[in-house]
UniProtKB/TrEMBL annotation:
Similarity remark: Belongs to the peptidase M1 family.
GO molecular function, one term: alanyl aminopeptidase activity
Domain Peptidase M1 alanyl aminopeptidase C-terminal: 557-877
Species whose genome carries this gene: Rhodanobacter aciditrophus
Keywords: Aminopeptidase, Hydrolase, Metal-binding, Metalloprotease, Protease, Zinc
Domain Peptidase M1 membrane alanine aminopeptidase span(s) in chain numbering: 232-446
Residues covered by the Aminopeptidase N-like N-terminal domain: 94-193
Superkingdom of source: Bacteria
CDD domains for this protein: M1_APN (cd09600)
NCBIfam families associated with the record: pepN_proteo (TIGR02414)
Cofactors required: Zn(2+)
Enzyme Commission number(s): 3.4.11.2
Domain Peptidase M1 alanyl aminopeptidase Ig-like fold: 451-553
Lineage summary: Bacteria, Pseudomonadati, Pseudomonadota, Gammaproteobacteria, Lysobacterales
Name assigned to this protein: Aminopeptidase N
Length: 877
């Protein structure tokens, strides 16, 4: 690493800002080679600071060149300010003044994609979390909120569209004949919500009438060739606006709401006030180019960014340690929206499956942190699954504890009390407590403790007294910096199931229930149920009421019973997963011992029942049929053996495929959709089951199934069916694989988002020369290292390619390390995210573990960005 290692900052050191900026006036003179930014900051000392003489310290960046600085009309000579570690420091200032700053930046050379940069033909910005300081010197922290007025000057022939936050208030020509446009955003906001876009863009227009009858103009902008792919996003936006009015009573505030799609973007999308900027992969959708999954993602991300207008913008974060205040809450809101729009059980299974695979792994690794971290080196590293997904689970638990109405009372109070403020997670919980007169003090430990709690359950039934007891214990394992943990308040939703699959009612604390929420608060606790007429099978943690690892020693028969008979749809899935996990674990042990793998599986019985039950939602059936993923099995393993997991999964899949070949054929044939493509829950459900059935049918090995897959590929009129068929053809290495992979590329080479799918599938393809193939993809004329989507597709594909990535010669890991070292300079945010697989080195089987560690050590020897330094040094600590 370097001489001077970057150091951490701590939540406990929070201090209010020394200055406030009431108004921010910006002028951007856009140009191909240099952009001049002039800022006029209306500064005054913060009355809440206890220093009356503190210097003014503005944040800047190594890429910002200061041309001149003035206080009111006084141009500061060099002696009266200093530039230290990218900060502009002025020791002597009046108490209230206007600071004018002129800076020069080069957006065309900005490869980090934060601040102002070029993406294809346009200028765009990304300011969260600390990107604004790469535009001009500023108090770049979320508790400094200011009213922004922005003037953009540019050549109208190149940049006919010039956008910023709020409303357009003026437009005209400069003396040199350039065009200027001035925007004003009346809502005070932190700099991270600033946005600017300029380019030759097309737009579609729509309107939304709010609940109080105001008409809001809606606009979505894209490059001209993509404007035919925004109808679904527009529709999703209008439905999100309506939903937030109905469910949270939240109305949109400005007269205009704009969204812009850009190709080069580090993350999914950004909620800039009145001017959301989206990664085009999260906005564009058309039946021929977009899969069902991607449609659902567009809908969820549009909703997420829109919902931020209240949970994030109107009420924002005091500091970045509070990131989950806006992200956890907003993810909870977008998940609820999608659940209400489609099937809530299906949505819950998908979200939980993702959480248990990816967030649990993060919580068990060297980067484990609470949803409100106590320290960080680089905030960009904390846009994590823990902040987002576990953060959402914590909000969901509050919802479970308070109920729908209580939660709404709490959110109303939160928005009302803190509108226009920058606040903390404590403020959020306090509003929930005050509105409901409850005490959530023990619950709040979820905000400060990292790690996934283990909940262990045993039970006993007393026939004579008809009493059933559940004994529960909880334990949260140590995480870096947190060796010991306190007991959490864990809501455990339970029901009881009878021998013939009926819900068993019970008396708990004097009331009769079919289902109840138990409050597990102590290290060990016993819950007593009365009037239980027979020995029940417990259905525990229904709807996944808490983000914990639950352990109850279910027999195979009990799991099969819950799988078909539990009243809770989520737990039916959960039981089937547990059953499959148990079998896979046995197969892994056999594989590692060099034994022949067992030819028997209990899943056949369960799956057969499932496939014959016409009353079930096909999407649910498809989810149950999906075997636990490679990633999920890795998360569960004591010691990860990727080759063993892969072999076990392949074996079990073939057993099921052969055992139910006829059933899969029938499921394939009966789940075709008719009529034109629609991204409706009903059609999506049928396609998911149809394609899951096709994969099993092909896995059984018949020529008939293979030719059906090829036919589906050729006849498909939508990307979901075309790509599902192609994936099956490639993954099962059917003879047509090479030909069709090439044909697919030729057909879609002008659609960037489809090329991304092709890159991913190609990189993931398991074959002899897998790594050489991945390398050649990165040399492909349509590959572009500047585009994070393409890089992620290839590297993500490689990560799924067990043979190539986890090769025992270490070449896969070395190649990944090369890319990290390259991207460390170009784009540190992306580089740091590429490190994730290597951070798991301590969980890998010894040989692979050593190879991974060696690559981390090689990276550590480089001159590292803060981003990569933090992840690598914590992984090696
Ligand atoms: N606030 C954005 C969201 O979750 C996240 C985001 C977008 C982001 N782009 C970023 C975070 C760049 C860090 C860096 O909706
Ligand atoms: Zn967000």
């Amino acid at each position: 690493m370097s001489e001077q290692n970057p150091s951490a900052i701590y939540l406990k050191d929070y201090k209010v800002p020394e200055f406030l900026i009431d108004k921010t006036e910006l002028t951007f003179d856009l140009d191909e080679t240099q952009t001049i930014v002039t800022s006029r900051l209306h500064l005054r000392r913060n009355p809440e600071s206890n220093s009356a003489t503190a210097p003014l310290v503005l944040d800047g960046g190594e890429d910002v060149k200061l041309i001149g600085v003035a206080i009111d009309t006084y141009e500061l000579p060099k002696e009266e300010y200093s530039l230290v570690n990218d900060k502009l420091i002025i020791t002597a200032t009046p108490n209230e003044f206007i600071l004018t700053c002129e800076t020069l930046i080069e957006p065309q050379n900005n490869t980090k994609l934060e601040g102002l940069y070029r993406s294809s033909s346009m200028f765009c910005t990304q300011c969260e979390a600390e990107g604004f300081r790469h535009i001009t010197y500023y108090l770049d922290r979320p508790d400094v909120m200011s009213v922004f007025t922005t003037t953009i000057i540019g050549d109208e022939s190149k940049y006919p569209v010039m956008l910023s936050n709020g409303n357009e208030i003026e437009r005209g020509k400069t003396e040199e004949g350039k065009t200027f446009v001035t925007w004003n955003d009346p809502f005070p906001k932190p700099a991270y919500l600033f946005a600017l876009v300029a380019g030759d863009l097309n737009v579609i227009n729509d309107t939304f009438v709010t609940m109080s009858g105001r008409e809001v103009a809606l606009q979505i902008y894209t490059e001209p060739h993509n404007i035919d792919k925004v109808d679904f996003a527009m529709d999703s936006l209008k439905r999100s606006m309506k939903w937030d009015e109905e469910v949270y009573g939240r109305e949109y505030d400005l007269d205009i709401f704009m969204i812009v799609a850009v190709d080069d973007f580090n993350m999914g999308a950004m909620e800039n006030k009145g001017l959301n900027i989206f990664n085009s992969s999260c906005l564009l959708a058309s039946p021929k180019t977009t899969t069902d999954d991607a449609y659902l993602r567009v809908e969820a991300v549009v909703a997420h960014e829109y919902f931020h207008n209240w949970s994030g913008n109107r009420v924002t974060c005091r500091d970045w340690f509070q990131l989950s205040l806006k992200e956890g809450f907003t993810v909870f809101r977008d998940q609820s929206f999608s659940a209400d729009t489609h099937s809530s059980v299906v949505k819950r299974v998908e979200d939980v499956s993702f959480l248990k695979t990816a967030q649990f792994a993060e919580d068990a690794g060297p980067m484990a942190h609470p949803i409100r971290p106590a320290s960080f080196i680089e905030i960009s590293n904390f846009y994590t699954l823990t902040i987002y997904e576990k953060g959402s689970e914590v909000v969901r638990m509050i919802h479970t504890l308070l109920g729908e109405e209580g939660f709404r009372k709490g959110s109303d109070l939160y928005f009302e009390r803190h509108d226009g403020q920058a606040v903390t997670c404590d403020d959020f919980v306090a509003a929930m407590e005050d509105a409901n007169d409850v005490d959530l003090s023990q619950f709040k430990r979820w905000y400060s403790q990292a790690g996934t709690p283990r909940v262990t359950v045993t039970d006993e039934y007393d026939e004579a007294s008809k009493t059933y007891r559940l004994h529960m214990s909880q334990m949260t394992p140590p995480t870096p910096g947190q060796p010991t943990k306190l007991s959490l308040h864990i809501p455990v939703k339970v029901g009881l199931v009878s021998a013939n699959n009926e819900p068993l009612s019970f008396v708990y604390e004097g009331n009769t229930h079919d289902e109840t929420v138990l409050h597990l608060k102590d290290a060990e606790q016993t819950f007593v149920f009365e009037n239980v007429t027979e020995q029940p099978v417990p259905s525990l943690l229904r709807e996944f009421s808490a983000p914990v690892k639950l352990n109850y020693d279910y027999s195979t028969e009990q799991l099969l019973q819950l799988m078909s008979g539990d009243a809770d749809g989520f737990n039916r899935w959960s039981a089937s997963q547990q059953l499959a996990v148990n079998e896979l674990n046995q197969l892994i042990v056999q594989y590692q011992a060099g034994q022949t793998l067992s030819e028997e599986t209990q899943l056949l019985k369960g799956f057969a029942t499932l496939l014959s039950d016409k009353t079930l939602d096909p999407a649910m059936v498809a989810l149950i049929l999906a075997l636990p993923s490679q990633a999920y099995m890795s998360e569960l393993a004591e010691e990860i053996d990727p080759h063993g997991i892969k072999a076990a999964r392949k074996h079990l899949r073939e057993l099921i495929a052969k055992g139910l070949e006829q059933e899969f054929k029938v499921a394939y044939e009966t789940n075709t959709t008719d009529g034109p493509y629609e991204a409706t829950a009903e059609q999506i459900a049928k396609r998911s089951l149809k394609n899951a059935a096709l994969a099993y049918w092909v896995a059984a090995g018949s020529d008939e199934a293979a030719s059906v897959a090829v036919r589906q590929y050729r006849n498909a009129d939508n990307m979901t069916d075309q790509f599902a068929a192609l994936s099956i053809i490639v993954n099962f290495d059917l003879p047509e694989a090479d030909e069709l992979l090439n044909a697919f590329y030729e057909q879609w080479k002008h659609e960037a988002l489809v090329v991304i799918k092709w890159l991913m599938l190609s990189a993931a393809r398991e074959q002899e020369n897998g790594l050489a193939n991945v390398k050649s993809l990165m040399e492909h004329p349509n590959f572009d290292i500047k585009n994070p989507n393409k890089l992620r597709a290839v590297i993500g594909g490689l990560g799924q390619n067990t043979q190539a990535f986890h090769n025992l010669d270490g070449s896969g890991y070395a190649f990944l390390a090369d890319q990290i070292i390259l991207m460390n300079k170009r784009n540190p945010q992306i580089a740091s995210r590429l490190c994730t697989p290597l951070t798991r080195w301590q969980r890998m089987e010894p040989e692979l573990s050593g190879l991974m560690k060696a690559q981390l050590e090689r990276i550590a020897g480089e001159d590292l960005s803060k981003d990569v330094y933090e992840v690598v040094s914590k992984s090696l600590a």
